[in-house]
Design goal:
mainly alpha, 6 helices, DUF2752, DUF2752 domain-containing protein, transmembrane helix, membrane, transmembrane
Length: 137
C-alpha cells in the first residue's frame, strides 16, 4: 500500500527533543559568549582561509549573537543577507510543507544559488560594507 501525497511522515519524539536541545544549547552558547573577540571557540571559515574572501555565511555567528542580545544594527552590519534571507526562506519552506507541496522546486534552488553567489560577490567588493551609508551611519 502506497502512502498518499497528503500523508506526512511523523518525526520520532526523541529526534525532535534532541534537535531542540542541540539548537537551544548552540544558541545559548552563541548568546552568552561574544564571537566578536578572539578565542570564541569556533574554527576559522575554511572558505576564507582558502580564498581570502568572506563566504555568504561569514558573520553569521556574530549576527546571531547580536540578534540574541538585541543589537539589530550590529546584526545588519555582520551579515544582512542571512538576517533577512534565512527567516524568509524558513517561512517559505514551512508554508510549502504545510500545503503539502515540494519544498525546494528547481526554480527555488536556482534563486537561492544565484542570490548566494551574488551576495558573496557584493560583500567582497572594495568599499563594502555599504550598509552604514544607507542607514545614515
Amino acid at each position: 500500500m502506497q502512502p498518499s501525497d497528503t500523508t506526512r511522515r511523523r518525526i520520532p519524539p526523541y529526534a525532535a527533543v534532541g534537535t531542540a536541545a542541540a539548537l537551544t544549547g548552540a544558541l545559548a552558547y552563541i548568546g552568552l559568549r561574544d564571537p566578536h573577540v578572539s578565542g570564541f571557540g569556533f574554527p576559522a571559515c575554511p572558505f576564507r582561509l582558502l580564498t581570502g574572501w568572506n563566504c555568504p555565511g561569514c558573520g553569521g555567528i556574530r549576527m546571531t549573537h547580536d540578534v540574541l542580545n538585541g543589537d539589530l544594527a550590529a546584526a545588519v552590519t555582520d551579515n544582512v543577507f542571512m538576517l533577512v534571507a534565512l527567516p524568509l526562506l524558513a517561512l517559505w519552506l514551512v508554508l510549502r510543507w504545510r500545503r503539502g507541496r515540494k519544498l525546494m522546486p528547481t526554480a527555488a534552488v536556482i534563486v537561492v544559488i544565484v542570490a548566494t553567489v551574488a551576495w558573496t560577490i557584493v560583500r567582497n567588493l572594495p568599499g563594502f560594507p555599504l550598509v552604514p551609508t544607507f542607514i545614515g551611519g
